[in-house]
Amino acid sequence: MDRSREFVDALVQSFAPAAYTLDEQDRRSYEADWRGLIDEPAVAVLLPSSTVEVAEMVKLCARFGMAIVPQGGRTGLVAGAVPIKAFAQVIISMRRMSKIRGIDSVNNTMVIEGGVILQSAQEAAAAIDRLFPLSLASEGSCHIGGTIATNAGGIQVLSYGSMRHQVLGLEVVLPDGQIWDGLRSLRKDNTGLDLKQLFIGSEGMFGIITAATVRLLPRPKCTLTMLAAIDSAGQALETFVKVQNLCGADLTSCEYFTSGGLEMVLDHLPDSVAPFRESYPAYVLLEVASLDSSADLLGRLEPMLAELLENETIKDMVVAQSEVQRLALWKLREGISEAERAIGGAIKHDIAVPISCIPDVITKISEGLHGVAPGCRLNIFGHLGDGNLHVNVVPPQGVALSEFYSHDRCVTSYIERTAVEAGGTFSAEHGIGQLRVDSLEKYRAPVELALMRTIKDAIDPTWMMNPGKVLNLAR
Ligand SMILES: Cc1cc2nc3c(=O)[nH]c(=O)nc-3n(C[C@H](O)[C@H](O)[C@H](O)COP(=O)(O)OP(=O)(O)OC[C@H]3O[C@@H](n4cnc5c(N)ncnc54)[C@H](O)[C@@H]3O)c2cc1C
């Protein structure tokens, strides 16, 4: 009997039917990544409902030498949560571990399981008048465990930091099935190494995050959301700097997108409304928040905005007058990935550069790419205030993505090199997964890669936890 068959027999004997699925049809919805680029079979999909069950499953996998792919909401954009080719693997989906274990409005903390959907965590915090500040366009599907494993960023990093900044403690099932209970809820704890940092952003290669203690913040009592139409990335940067200088940490978001991204949203997402009568080359979406319900945010910004309009740094501007209008403006930015998927997808990149370099980098990429992939359409958008741009290269009209992928190597090499030469990174918030393993090998120093491998060897000596993700298997 082969190893997979023996494993499946032992699985069926050891766990209740609700704790796994072997059915080929059911497995399909766990095997393909969000972008539809990778779709490899898993031996089984395991569906634990408690930390102890996760630990028992991991021990069973270790006993049979079965590799594990931890899976959250499967919204990752680098195919980290789905199997790799030619390798017997099981997926451990965390979707049944979705309890909020506790919430403390004095300590301002919440203990939540790895499979809690991000939006549910935000809602639980809001129910006690607190803010859980991580916010992404995928928040209706992605899990807390997935956002920790990827150190997710999103639209409010500017003010509140990425997921790493929200985590105070973790509970993790290690590759040998041991449970590490590190669910501390302290802001200060210098007792030896801060082990939770190892697991944050490790993309499931050191263990399965079953629960976390996260910090909560006071909830802003008023917000001001504005969309500015601009001619160039330079003007976007100038607007950002002016608003940030005036508002400091009250500026919670500063997002950039171009007319191409806006057109995709208007054409493909129902109920999206054009914000201006005419089209402009680019847009900046800014949001300012205050804990003071009587703060006059518009009054504070008005003189400076008037000056920017007067000297034509900003060509036109809308200010949301209601929550409905605010959400409508956000839809124009947050709907871009979904709209891009609707037109067939793109070669996607997620770079970060020093904020001051953004205009030059956008110019260099825009000018250079047409030589690399003639006829391509560039869809650049992202978190301008964090220096983080999603540089998506859409095939020419009428060309399928599968056909356009023949340009992937040249396109990727050009964009990554441009970002790195500007002192930036080729992956700002999406991570490495299985799509960027070669880039990691190329751009991180040998000493860094050796350190990463040493840590992997120590925690997961047989490399059975999410093999082929982040680090190259060939060693
Ligand atoms: C429309 C859209 C918008 C997005 N916007 C943003 C954005 O603004 N900022 C951003 O950072 N990302 C963004 N993303 C990417 C994605 O949503 C994030 O990476 C998110 O954190 C992934 O969470 P997930 O639960 O879906 O994880 P998955 O996709 O399921 O998994 C991601 C990685 O984490 C590992 N993993 C998952 N759960 C666990 C666990 N419990 N324990 C250990 N490892 C685990 C997986 O093995 C995999 O390597 C976006 C994606 C989409 C589709």
From TrEMBL:
<dbReference type="GO" id="GO:0071949">
    <property type="term" value="F:FAD binding"/>
</dbReference>
<keyword id="KW-0285">Flavoprotein</keyword>
<dbReference type="GO" id="GO:0022904">
    <property type="term" value="P:respiratory electron transport chain"/>
</dbReference>
<feature type="domain" description="FAD-binding PCMH-type">
    <location>
        <begin position="38"/>
        <end position="219"/>
    </location>
</feature>
<dbReference type="InterPro" id="IPR016169">
    <property type="entry name" value="FAD-bd_PCMH_sub2"/>
</dbReference>
<dbReference type="InterPro" id="IPR016164">
    <property type="entry name" value="FAD-linked_Oxase-like_C"/>
</dbReference>
<dbReference type="Pfam" id="PF01565">
    <property type="entry name" value="FAD_binding_4"/>
</dbReference>
<keyword id="KW-0274">FAD</keyword>
<comment type="similarity">
    <text>Belongs to the FAD-binding oxidoreductase/transferase type 4 family.</text>
</comment>
<protein>
    <submittedName>
        <fullName>FAD-binding oxidoreductase</fullName>
    </submittedName>
</protein>
<dbReference type="InterPro" id="IPR006094">
    <property type="entry name" value="Oxid_FAD_bind_N"/>
</dbReference>
<dbReference type="InterPro" id="IPR036318">
    <property type="entry name" value="FAD-bd_PCMH-like_sf"/>
</dbReference>
<dbReference type="InterPro" id="IPR016166">
    <property type="entry name" value="FAD-bd_PCMH"/>
</dbReference>
<dbReference type="InterPro" id="IPR051264">
    <property type="entry name" value="FAD-oxidored/transferase_4"/>
</dbReference>
<dbReference type="InterPro" id="IPR004113">
    <property type="entry name" value="FAD-bd_oxidored_4_C"/>
</dbReference>
<dbReference type="Pfam" id="PF02913">
    <property type="entry name" value="FAD-oxidase_C"/>
</dbReference>
<dbReference type="GO" id="GO:0003824">
    <property type="term" value="F:catalytic activity"/>
</dbReference>
<dbReference type="InterPro" id="IPR016167">
    <property type="entry name" value="FAD-bd_PCMH_sub1"/>
</dbReference>
<dbReference type="InterPro" id="IPR016171">
    <property type="entry name" value="Vanillyl_alc_oxidase_C-sub2"/>
</dbReference>
